[in-house]
Each structure stands twice: as structure tokens, then as C-alpha cells.
Amino acid sequence: MTGPQPARLILSEAEQTALEKLTQAHRTAQQLVLRARIILKAGAGLNNAQIGRALQVGIDMMRQWRQRWLASQTIPLTELTAAERLEDLPRPGAPVTITPGTAWPNLAGTLSHGE
After folding, report:
1. Which of 1, 23, 97, 107 is the most exposed place for a label (fewest CB within 10 A)?
2. Which candidate, 95, 94, 75, 93, places its Cα nearest to that of 85?
3. What CA–CA distance (Å, rounded) separates 59 from 62?
């Protein structure tokens, strides 16, 4: 018995080329390389479980990136590059207010009071 089939992902030639370039570039972050490989395998017709086994990642990750890619395919590559499509979404919550520059003086002051 098979489970539900994932949404079919069809890559244009330009998308395929852009993703392959990401996986081959030496300076591409490994996170983006993995995501590009996921999309390339999905475009080749593999289902989420097959991709997960091949790349040793969870099925939830497969679902997430397949869905995100499908949602972003309506936007042309000239407006949203392949790398931009594979970036993390902004996280919810308040922006960071403590930076390394502000944390150190506070920490140093706290540690010096204990002496």
C-alpha cells in the first residue's frame, strides 16, 4: 500500500541549470547545496521518501522544500533567483537587540562584580 503522492515538480531548463550551478559552486553554503539537491531529485521524479533516503534527511524536510519551491515557481528566476528561493524564511519574533558589541561590556561588568 502506498501513501499519498507528493505534488509533481517540473523544472524548467533555466531552473535546472541554476540549481546544478549552485551544487557545483565551491562557495555555496552547504545548506543551500542540500536544498538544491532536494529540488533536483524532486524534479527528476523521485518521491519524498526516496529523496530522504538518498540524501539522508527527514521526510518533513523533503515536504517543506518541495512545497516552498512549488510556491515560488510562479515568480520568474529574473525576479527571484534559485539561491533566493532556497534561503531560510525570516524568523518570527522581535528583532535581535543584543549584539556582540553590546553583550561583551554587559558580561564583563557582571563578571567583575563577583570578585
Report:
1. 1
2. 75
3. 5
